[in-house]
Amino acid sequence: MPPLRFPLQTERLLLRPFTDGDLEAVFAIQSGEDVTRYLYWGPRSLDEVRHQLKRLKAMTAIDGESDALRLAAVARESGELIGDVSLHSVNRDHLQAELGFILHPDHQGQGFGTEAAAEMVRIGFEDLGFHRIYGSCDARNTASARLMERLGMRREAHFRENEFVKGVWCDELIYAILATEWAEAH
User: In three state form, how does the secondary structure of 65-130 look?
Assistant: First the structure.
């Protein structure tokens, strides 16, 4: 497969690799308790975000050398970085990837997360040739669960108290979609 050409464009978003200039925007997202409430990690300091940004900048392809594609989601109209979306190759033999997404609260509820995630699923199936893409979320995170359902993903599992996160036993939901299901819907 030829390398992806950035930025990728959707109706309202540009998806592109992270740059050093994204530090303040990523900090604004990752330092918020409302953003990290259902994630494995809590609000990050500026130094922690600086370290994380270094890792994010390297996640630009899923190929023979890299297992992760994580892109900044930028609102086309304003040029503002509003979140990120990712695919991680979790099993090359079985052609499976995990979808991830984080959105700044000011931009939630407007369809941006669904738009960005749909483009990543499309890339995963049409460009990267995955067979199955799945996502997981804390069962209390109803917004993430609804987003995955809007993508046509079906709930495959509800694991009861299977993760101990931030001192609390949490339920986890697993959603997935197959390449054939995606193709039939698109």
Answer: CCEEEEEEEEECCCCCEEEEEEEEEEECCCCEEEEEEEECHHHCCCCHHHHHHHHHHHHHHHHCCC
The fold of 8-185 is Aminopeptidase (3.40.630)
pTM above 0.90, yes or no: yes
Instruction: Return the closest-CA partner of residue 37 out of 98, 102, 99, 85.
Output: 102
Going by pLDDT thresholds of 50, 70 and 90, the confidence category of residue 1 is: low
**Taking the CA atoms of the chain, what radius of gyration do you get in angstroms?**
16
Mean pLDDT over residues 74-98, rounded?
96
Hey, what amino acid is at 51?
H
List, in sequence order, every residue forming a beta bridge with 179; answer none if it has no partner. Answer: none
Q: How far apart are CA 172 and CA 179, in angstroms?
A: 23
**Every domain of the chain and the residues it spans:** 8-185
In contact, 86 and 102? CB cutoff 8 Å: no
Q: Locate tokens 């799945």: which residue?
A: 134
